Amino acid sequence: MTQQTQSRHIFISALEYSAEMHCVHLIAALQQKTAAAVWPGQTPPPQQTLRFAGFGGRQLAEAGCSLLDDTVSRAAMIYNVLGQLGYYRRLIRQAQLYFAHNRPDLVIVCDSPAFNFHIAKAAKKHRIPVLFYVAPQLWAWGPWRIGKLRRCCDKLACILPFEKDWFAARGIDAQFVSNPLFDPIDTDLEKNFKSYTAYDPAAARIALLPGSREAEIRSLWPAMLTIAAALQKKHPAAVFTACAPDALKRALLEKLKSQSPHADLPVAFAAAGLYETARQADLALIASGSATLQAAAAGCPMIVMYQSNKWLWHLLARWLVRLRFLSLPNILAGKELVPEFMPYFTSLDPIIARADGLLNTPSRLSSISQALIELVRPMAQRRASDAVADIVLDMLAADTSRPAVG
To answer: Is the pLDDT of residue 82 over 90?
Structure first.
């Protein structure tokens, strides 16, 4: 019996490495779910074939997405986006033309709301359903943008537990899908608890995790090396391990280190990813962002760092941010579970002092390890990519604005 095939077209917009990997896992989940089983003697259901196009990077292309532009290699921090406005405007025009001539059945925008709001708006002009994967953090700053989100978002996939109720109360069709960072992680997090019973502060294992974006690395890596050099004087047998998302970023770390005053500081570069690196560490110096949740799942105590333009922070950002804490572990805990220095301007001495204090207090490290595991456990109970794939398939099934291509 001949099986009917329905071809559906999905546009993906992922500007940065983390968003790209979320979408890579989503494509894999969708492909698995749409591989319909056919039972003997039964009429086979229509099988959906999905094709993907959009913005992303090499990993997304290898997953089967036809790229209009490699945006991941151009990822930038908030404070240096101004220098790339022309590039982002060209991307938006490119998307507008694509929607006009190759109308997708669904547009998925992943993270990077400052840019992806424009992509979603362009999609809605062509009456294309839009899924926001990773809710914009309007609860932290810019809540006046909720009206914009309502106008251009059909479904919102939230990756933090409290977000569903916050957005639903403001008229957004939101669903908590778990956190995609935990998709590749064993859900038995208790094995990651660090007791520090055989721990020697003099030989502490310290992870240096300066982020995945070039601007982030250039900002934080020199500071982390200075902190590591100061800690080595206090903990002479300490072992330092750095982690980079790919070979290019590792080369950048090595280059910047060789040009720094700490070129001779022994730093190993981990072959494993951030999660495995954090599992092996007693303490991490880590860039603020979603990576802190991976370190939390690894049961790794951490000091969270972020740097910003000093004048922009004092003139603008400090007045827009509405939260007492800025790092995700502390936001979720509602208290200072881990030290955060966001931003730091005047001196690294307070960071060195906090790190040294933690390294010399194994009981405190142990209690932080347990608290971090308990904090993220609810987000690691199911695969976010599976939950988002179900939303995508439901949206495709509900889209009757035009017949599927047979």
So the answer is: no
